[in-house]
Design brief:
Shape: elongated
Structural class: alpha+beta
Radius of gyration: 20 Å
Number of strands: 7
Number of helices: 10
Strand content: 15-25%
Helix content: 40-55%
Strand order of the largest sheet: 1-2-3-5-4
Length: 261
């Protein structure tokens, strides 16, 4: 018979005014939880072959082992995410098998990029994250990452984008086809919450650090900052997914790229 989630431990976390969490405390507090999860066949199957169905099965197993642990889940091209309802953290699982060879661990990239942002004094624009630990499985060690939870209200962010667009772009009065096409293309970018729209918006809302942020994105191959990768921390916009994607995949990384930070 499995113990309940609350019987195993009562998790707490420590954070400074800058919302930098104490990774040592988090590791100690969440270890009993993942010690139970890693014993399930679903975790073994997921780490051997991470994909949508094996992640769904893992979430079902977590519900069975810890029925009072309430959480949401999400997934994308590069990672899977578990979002506990009652805790100010989320857990990220890279879309790589335990023995991944040359595959890119985008969660590791994200943790690396956060440390780089700290060094450049730009970390206030990013949700804090770090590696929680490597979990042993019969398939090898599998990494799990932790990020601070922020309010991921994409609808509100898209509304802010459209408000900004409407305040800064007027529909052309003339019937100039080129002007109208340019206006409609820009309107579509903002309607979609695209990276192009977010870039224009950032220039307005982050005027003091905008050029430094753009340089940081370029230097670290971060090319996928759309509205779905943003959230609110205390009402301020922060980036929650900053591992990049295509630019990183297509790049030849320096040998010390991961270990530099």
């Amino acid at each position: 018979r499995f113990l309940t989630f609350s019987q195993i431990f009562d998790i707490i976390y420590i954070e400074s005014e800058e919302r930098v969490m104490d990774i040592v405390s988090l590791r100690e507090q969440w270890k009993p939880f993942f010690d139970k999860i890693r014993q399930t066949k679903e975790f073994e199957e997921f780490t051997k072959d991470p994909w949508s169905q094996s992640f769904y099965n893992l979430c079902a197993a977590i519900n069975e082992v810890f029925p009072d642990f309430v959480f949401d889940s999400d997934s994308g091209e590069t990672k899977f995410v578990i979002i506990p309802e009652d805790y100010d953290v989320v857990f990220k699982f890279p879309n790589i098998p335990a023995k991944h060879g040359s595959s890119i661990d985008y969660c590791l990239v994200e943790a690396r990029n956060y440390r780089a942002a700290v060094e450049k004094h730009l970390d206030k624009y990013f949700a804090w994250c770090d590696k929680l630990f490597d979990v042993y499985t019969p398939n090898g060690y599998y990494p799990i990452y932790v990020m601070e939870k922020v309010n991921c209200d994409e609808q509100s962010i898209n509304e802010e984008l459209m408000d900004w667009f409407n305040s800064n772009y007027d529909e052309p009065d003339s019937k100039d086809e080129k002007e109208m096409i340019e206006y409609e293309d820009t309107l579509q970018e903002f309607s979609d919450g695209s990276s192009i729209a977010v870039d224009l918006w950032f220039e307005s809302i982050f005027p003091d650090d905008y050029m430094r942020l753009i340089q940081f994105f370029t230097t670290n191959f971060i090319d996928d900052i759309h509205s779905g990768n943003l959230g609110y921390r205390n009402g301020e916009i922060v980036i929650i997914d900053y591992c990049g994607y295509r630019a990183l995949f297509d790049s030849k990384l320096p040998k010390d790229w991961y270990s530099k930070y």
